[in-house]
Write a structure and sequence with these properties.
Length: 149
């Protein structure tokens, strides 16, 4: 009986605090995306060759943990199959946050654009028993910094 009560408390806390944290994070992401919208980040491997830019490696790294409620919903989805939508927002937030951090790094260097943008992902504490899993996303690219006069 105690285990069921603990489970229900964790599930309820996960739902309310997880939803609150996710909404707050999305508001922050949308605000910063508007701020860094003028700094293009593209996947092309070939930089523009008309100006002799200085170059610098820029990165943005994010680790986001899944809440207990989403983990429970994902476990139910594993029983029946189909899309695990409870994890899709987790990955979306991690990718967007990493890209924003990379752009902030580029902006601090005075870059005019970032090219050859790539993502790396890793799962943290995967397969570690009952540990709540986390996802890490690293965004990196080459910042082009216009030469000073």
């Amino acid at each position: 009986m105690i285990e069921l009560i603990v489970f229900l408390i964790l599930l309820t806390l996960g739902y309310f605090f997880g939803q609150s944290a996710e909404k707050r994070h999305y508001r922050s992401i949308i605000e910063r995306e508007a701020r860094y919208n003028a700094l293009p980040a593209i996947a092309s491997r070939y930089p523009p060759d008309d100006v002799n830019y200085r170059q610098a490696l820029v990165t943005g790294n994010t680790v986001i943990s899944v809440d207990y409620f989403k983990r429970f919903i994902a476990a139910l989805r594993n029983l029946f199959g189909g899309r695990v939508t409870s994890y899709e927002t987790l990955l979306d937030r991690a990718r967007r946050e990493s890209l924003l951090r990379m752009k902030a790094h580029a902006d601090a260097l005075g870059a005019s654009m970032v090219f050859n943008v790539k993502y790396e992902t890793a799962s943290i504490s995967k397969g570690a028993g009952n540990a709540i899993g986390s996802v890490e996303v690293l965004a990196y690219g080459t910042a082009l910094i216009e030469p000073r006069d």
